[in-house]
Amino acid sequence: MVAFKRPDGRKITDLRPMTAKVGVVPNADGSALFAFGDTIAIAAVYGPRLLHPQHMQDPKQAVLRVNYDLLSFSVYERKKPGPSRRSQEISKMTEYALSPVLDLKEFPNTVIDVQIYILQADAGTRTAGINAASMALAHAGLPMKDLVCSVAIGKQDTTVVVDLTKEEEDFHEGEGATDFPLAKIANSDQFTLVQLDGNISTDLIPAAIQLANDACAEIYEVQKKALKEGALQ
Predict the structure, then answer these.
(1) Beta strands in 23-62 (DSSP E)
(2) pTM for the complete prediction?
C-alpha cells in the first residue's frame, strides 16, 4: 500500500511552519500577526470605545465588530476593492468564534473593533485571522477566558489532513477536497466555530476532531509564546 503524500511533503498531522508576534500595529490598542506558512494575517484591536451613533449602543454589553479583508495584493487573481460577500461572511463567523471568550458585559454602550487583514493568502486565511485576532485582543488587555485557536482540517479523497494549502483545497481526484475550518477555546473542549465546505463521511469526523485538538494545542503554545515575548518588550 502506497503511503499518502501531501504536495509539500508534510505528514497528515503536520501544520505548516507558524509565525506569531504581537505589537505589529503601533497605533492600535492591541495587535498581532499570525502565519501558517505563506498565509499571513494581521489583526488590530481598537477599543473598547463609545459606540456612535448612540442608537447602535447596547446598554448591557459591548458590541464586537470584526472586519476581515483580503488585501488586493494578497491573492493571485484580480480582487475587487471593498468588502465581498465572502469577507462579510468570514467577518461574522469570526465574531461568533471570538465572542465566547470575551466578557463583553464589562463594557456597556461601547464597541470593540477588530480589523483583520490578510497580507498573503495560501488557504487557511479565516483560521489565521482568528488566531491573530485572539492574540490581538489579549495584547489589548481585554478580559478573556482564554485564547481562541483555529485551524482548517481537510480531506484529500478519503484521507483527513490538517492545515490545507491552496493546492490541497483545489484537489479534484477521487472524492475531491473538503475544507473543515474549526475554532476552539484553548484548554477546553468547547468549539466556537465549525464550518464545512465539501463533504465528509461521519466515520471520518472523530479523526478530524482529534487532528483539530492536537493542532490547536500546538497553535496555543505558539500564541502564548508570542504574547509572553511581547510582554517583555
Answers:
(1) 30-36, 39-50
(2) 0.92
Q: Is residue 55 domain-resident?
A: yes
Q: How far apart are CA 96 and CA 130, in angstroms?
A: 10
If one counts the domains in the chain, the total is 1
- The alpha carbons of the chain give a radius of gyration, in whole angstroms, of 18
Strand bridging mode 63-70 / 110-120 = parallel
d(CA 177, CA 223): 28
Of 98, 48, 38, 47, nearest in space to 68 by CA: 98
pLDDT digits (tens, 9 = 90+) for 115-160: 999 999 999 999 999 999 999 999 999 999 999 999 999 887 788 9
> What's the CA gap between 94 and 114, in Å, rounded?
10
Annotate 84-96 with b (16+ C-beta within 10 A) or e (fewer): eeebeebbebbbe
DSSP state for residue 197 in the 8-state scheme: B
Examine residue 209 and state whether it is found in any structural domain, yes or no.
yes
Q: Which domain holds residue 131?
A: 18-232
Question: How far is 16 from 164, CA to CA, in rounded Å?
Answer: 9
* Number of other residues whose CB lies within 10 A of the CB of residue 97: 29
CATH of the domain at 99: 3.30.230.70
Name the grid cell of 46: 481598537
Tell me, yes or no, whether 193 lies in a domain: yes
